[in-house]
PAS domain S-box protein (Massilia violaceinigra), 949 residues
Amino acid sequence: MGNLLRRVRISISVSAILALLVGLALTALLFASVRRVETQARTVRFQQDAMLRINAVSGGLSDAIEQLMVVNQLFNTFGVVTRQQFHSFTAPLLARYPELHALSFQRLVSHAGRPAYEAQQRRRIPGFTITDFIGGQHGPAPRRAHYNVVEYIEPGAGNDTALGLDTSAVTTYGDARSRSRRNGRVTATGLLSLVQQRGFHTGFLVLAPVYQRQAPQDTVRQRERAVIGETAAIFRVDHLIHTLLGSARLLDQPGMSINIYASGSAQAAQLAFSNGKAPRRSSSVSALLPVWLLYDHPAPVNAVFNVAGEPWFIEVTQEPRSFMDTHAGSWYALLGGLLSSLLAAGYVYSLVSRHSAIERVAGERTAALQFANLRLTEDLALRKRTEKALRLREKVIEVSANAVIICNAEGPDYAVEYVNPAFESITGYSAAEVIGKSLKFLQGAGHDQQNIDEISAALREQREGHAVLRNYRKDGSGYWNDLFIAPVRDDAGAISHFVVAQYDISAVMRFEAELEYQANHDALTGLANRHLLAERLSSAIAQAHRAGTELWVVFVDLDRFKFVNDTLGHEAGDAMLRVLGERIKGAVGEADTVSRMGGDEFVLVLPGYPGDGGGLRVLQRIMDAVAEPLRIQAHEFFVTCSLGVAVYPADGGNADTLTKHADIAMYRAKELGRNSYQFYCPEMNARTLERLQIEADLRHALERNELVLHYQPQIDVKSGAIVGMEALLRWEHPVLGVVSPLRFIALAEEMGLIIPIGAWVIRTACLQNMAWQKAGLGRLRIAVNLSARQFTGKDLLQSVGDALEESGLEARYLELELTESMVMGDVDNAITILRMLKQLGVHLAIDDFGTGYSSLSYLSRFPIDVLKIDQSFVRDIALDADGAAIVVSIISLAHSLRQKVIAEGVETAEQLAFLRAHGCDEVQGYFFSRPVGALEFEHLLAHAPCTTG
Ligand SMILES: Nc1nc2c(ncn2[C@@H]2O[C@@H]3COP(=O)(O)O[C@H]4[C@@H](O)[C@H](n5cnc6c(=O)[nH]c(N)nc65)O[C@@H]4COP(=O)(O)O[C@H]3[C@H]2O)c(=O)[nH]1
């Protein structure tokens, strides 16, 4: 019994041991199987994760490169793209594709074209110059045959250092550029350092060539000749990968490394991106430890993908992981197996068989999963490609700043089938309002545009067409439309539609018009400038030549402009020119041209006035308009002008000669007393020469003692005695003889010489008068003429005071003669000067009274002692009743103001009798004596009755 029991126990223990051994063996088997299943599942998961990242990188990159094509399409469609358009077009793309670091357009500029290009860019970017990075320094680019200049770059912020940069010197860049230009395709550069964003980052560019529109591009030579630059998408590699993977949280999987090379294999020098761990080919740890047991290390997954024609290599690796971390099931199986082995071999058996089944199912499922995964990836890639292509076209149209319209190809209406949002915003018509209709409604009511014929012909002949049209928005406002039209073929090759691209170029047209206006008009007055005058005059001459008619060229010069400019400053001068420019324009006809030559000179072209007096009336209108009182800075002015007229064809056959002759005639008008016009005659040329000679000699007349004073007596009407004299200047020129003041006073005034000459006259007159008084020739008054410049000059009081003091003459024996225009210019200033002169004690007379623009209300405010009636009225006394009436009114006006009256230019006894009869106080004229030299006058005094003072 005992033996049996022992045998049974041994048998049991053997069974148990056997069971245990079998159990252990099975446990070991189970453990190995579970481990393999878990490892396979992990490997598949890792491969899926790796493929997800590889697809995200390659797909994202090709998406971003597609955007470059969108931008490139913009240049190829519209040729000229403004900075604003580039900005508007790229801003939404950059916002939607943050992986794009920047988009730019680089222009090819030849060395010969560099100055013009820089000048053009400076209008937009002050101080613009083509730059370069040499030795890390940003500075002007050295001379090169060609420059590839970054003209636009978006976003602008942070990329400003790249604007104007010549990228020719970057070799990697240059290789890619020349490949892309030669083969006409999108091409990626190798890795390079980017200069944007203040600092250097590894990046690369994708370039797409831009060719001249419509230039042939079939051969390499044609493409090289047609290229004008390229668009570029700029990628910063770290930013790119973080955007593509980081945003989807694909970068932070523990232990997983992604290494991307800008080459077809894993070349360390081309490593573009690595998220942490460098790739590990063999592990020293895995070589030493029982890898199959302790570590889980799936094989790296890699792929080669295409970046704009360049192969890139991506490799995804998983760090070896401790077996303990990842194979909990295996451990449980081992422990469970050990425990279960002790309990029952059958249980172990069943466990083993169950795990076999699990193993098979898992294997089948894994295979099915891998297969499905493969199909899914392929389907997804195909659909993505198709969708991308469609989206690209849709996007180009939707985001386009220009209107895009698709019309049916069937005439005569060519009904609209589609309009993009830009069309709606440009025209104000909604899509619903235009679909199904003909585009003709954009032409408005007028159909007089010639360019429309080109578009109608293109539609009829089913070809491309282009025209600039005047179109009208829904609100009736007009705009300029640069319109391109092109036929679209269906799958069968028949033309089914037309695509129409409209570009609102109103702003460009306005800008051009503004530039043209500025180039042709005077900035101050808005009148035509020299340039436009030359154009108008030439065409008016040609027209007059064809029609056989006359043409007048009128030179207008303001008589007192210098005075206003000198006394009140340039602002007042400018204001005066503006007002007078307006007035002159208002005085001529619509067809006449009024231009400002600069300063106070205007030139007029009057084409349409025959010799029936119409032209003369226009000249008079101009003089009257200018002479109207003028209020500037609270001062009232009276300005006159002098006009010179040259007539085509008699006075010249071309613009230069006519203008020159009108100028000469104008000078003659000035010489003859201003506020008048003169027609050119050939003798004036001789006068001009003489004038030049006089001008040169006048500078030395004073120092060479060539100036002398003549004296003309002034007679008291009642007593017949000489009561005074007028000192009149003469120039004894060594060649010309005695020169009249009428020929040189105005000149001396223009040259500024009147101040020393005038002071000399006052001093000499005072000394001479005093000498005669001392010689007992009577206490007479001496009258001296003042010129306008002398009157307003700061030295007048001083020189009068000095002359009186030096000569010892009592102030009451000195009379200063002023003209009306001198005091009526700036009335308040004139009153101040007159009062100061009066305080010295001198007499004041208004010369040539009645010829100027006296305002009687002012006359009473002037502290004037004498009115001198102009000799023209005296001459008219006997000739016409009007002249006589004027003289009578002047005498009574002067007396009512308690002023004395002197009549000058008295030549006959009748004139004297008339003046005496009407109470004139004093007279002066050839009837008594011409102006004579000092000696002769002395003789006159000695023999004629004169006042004793
Ligand atoms: N036909 C005619 N003429 C007569 C008769 N009596 C006098 N005259 C002329 O009439 C002019 C009178 O001078 P004014 O009106 O002050 O006109 C003067 C005056 O405005 C200016 N002038 C003369 N001397 C000076 C001067 O020293 N300083 C300035 N600023 N101007 C002067 O030159 C102008 C012309 O001077 P003159 O040639 O000397 O011409 C003088 C004189 O010779 C007459 O009975 N019949």
Observations:
- The longest strand covers residues 478-489.
